[in-house]
Amino acid sequence: MTIFIEKSGVIVIEKFITDLLQKVETVEQFKMDxxxxxxxxxxxxxxxxxxxxxxxxxxxxxxxxxxxLNTVQLRTMKNQLLSKNYLFKGMQEDETDDxxxxxxxxxxxxxxxxxxxxxxxxxxxxxxxxxxxxLCCYLTLENDNRGFIExxxxxxxxxxxxxxxxxxxxxxxxxxxxxxxxxxxxxRKVTNFGKMFSFGEExxxx
Length: 206
Known about the structure:
Low-confidence stretches: none
Number of helices: 9
Structural class: mainly alpha
Oligomer: single chain
Shape: globular
Largest sheet: 2 strands, antiparallel
Strand order of the largest sheet: 1-2
Number of strands: 4
Radius of gyration: 17 Å
Strand content: 5-15%
Mean pLDDT: 92
Distance between the termini: 38 Å
């Protein structure tokens, strides 16, 4: 079982997530505090599939949908997700569990871009460009095409990168030059990768 150790004692992350899910569903205009967001971000790429997929991702997607995060918090998350400890974590290593950090960073970034596009536009054109350029760098460097990993769940890095690319492509404030570069990068990756996609990743990339 994954746990947090704090001065106040032991916090079981599974219960922490369950309690937050309940608050989001029952407390009117529930708002997250920065400390709790940091705790969630610390487990974004956990190798436990039930915690990572059904727990954390479900919670964060709901928090964004229900407007439980303010734009300052979303921007902080965005900057963290683009860092070397998230989107590029362990990039030079072969088939490690760091793939979950990279893959789910793309997925969470897609949620933030969708929020910016459909609910509250808070990111500048420069910030959208930064996300697009980082995604291009990511796609150029990523070589781990594993889909389902036994005992750990879906890695699906290229599928999640495709989800982010699609959100960026739909955003009206993404510069056409950034979109063109993204399209070229995806085309080159799909045609020159040298490994077979086995779980429909190319369909979500294109």
